[in-house]
Amino acid sequence: MQLIKTADFLTKHLSFLRTEDKNVTVGFIPTMGALHAGHLSLVEESVKQNDVTVCSIFVNPTQFGEEQDLVTYPKPIADDIRLLTEANCTVLFLPPVEEVYPKAYKHKTYALDGLDLKIEGASRPGHFQGVCNVLDRLFTLIEPTNAYFGQKDFQQTVVVKKLVELINSPTKICVLPIAREPHGLAMSSRNTRLSDQGRKNAAFIYRALQQLKEDVVTLGVTKALDKAKQFINAQKGASLDYLVIVDTDTLEEVDNLGDSNSVAALTVVEYEGVRLLDNIYLKA
Ligand code: PAF
């Protein structure tokens, strides 16, 4: 695996590969490091589907609201490099901040039709604009054929699809299913902040979503949501941030499953002081 730290070297390297073979396909997995099996499943898929796989590790300051979250974000870089090498990743882009955001860089605002303002965006103002700024920059440098994202960050995948439309990027956005820990908790870099017991217990979030998927058919949206919220709030140490049932394209809340062709339930639960995201398709 080639480790590249500058934007200039990255673009030169990729353009060299493209002159060698003009049909070369490039798969891209943007990450913030602290890699787990969920990230590695994206790398594995990219390695299968593309000639070259580029992974970036960049803890993007523009998508963090609280400085503390940015400072305490886990950064186990030696482990990450080992995991990517074992996964046959071709290039790791590991830039310092000034390579992604040079002095002259102007933070952009994207017209995302409000997709960035609701649900997770309402709890984290500016977060999705920050994600779009870094991805626009990385997509421009890498020009990937395919870019891979996990379904765990559901709203992010909807926002990214809108972004590629807005910036006329030819990159295909590939969304892969949520990787889960043995007990059912959705894999996340933040899970390392949970105690061992907490990590097992937090599987109640996935159980709540699975039950909700059954209940919504028999009880309807409103009653099924109430039941799931009660269940989550009854778990010791859990505090529900949100649980919503939405159309998967517009992220608008739906009152009936029949109102939309594709519906998912999205949730964030705070447990042992960690915000845990999860979601499930109710209708696809
Ligand atoms: O999902 C993430 O890890 C980040 O939001 C991303 C896509 C790498 C952008 O910084």
Explain this structure.
The chain is of the alpha/beta class. It has helices at residues 7-20, 37-49, 67-72, 77-86, 97-100, 120-123, 127-142, 154-166, 196-201, 204-219, 221-233; strands at residues 2-4, 26-31, 52-57, 91-93, 146-150, 172-176, 238-247, 263-271, 274-283. The strands form 2 sheets. The protein has a 6-stranded parallel β-sheet, sandwiched between helices. Strands 7-8-9 form a 3-stranded antiparallel β-sheet, with helices on one face. The mean pLDDT is 97. Pantoate is lined by residues 30-32, 60, 63, 131, 134-135, 153, 156.
Give the count of helical stretches. Answer: 11
- In helices, the fraction of residues equals 40-55%
Named once each, the bound ligands are: pantoate
Structural class computed from helices and strand pairing: alpha/beta
Which stretches of 5+ consecutive residues score pLDDT under 50?
none
Oligomeric status: single chain
User: What is the makeup of the main sheet?
Assistant: 6 strands, parallel
**Strand tally:** 9
Order of helices and strands: EHEHEHHEHHHEHEHHHEEE
| N- and C-termini, Cα separation | 38 Å
Mean pLDDT: 97
In what order do the strands lie side by side in the largest sheet?
A: 1-4-3-2-5-6
Strand content: 15-25%
Q: What is the alpha-carbon Rg in Å?
A: 19 Å
Shape: globular
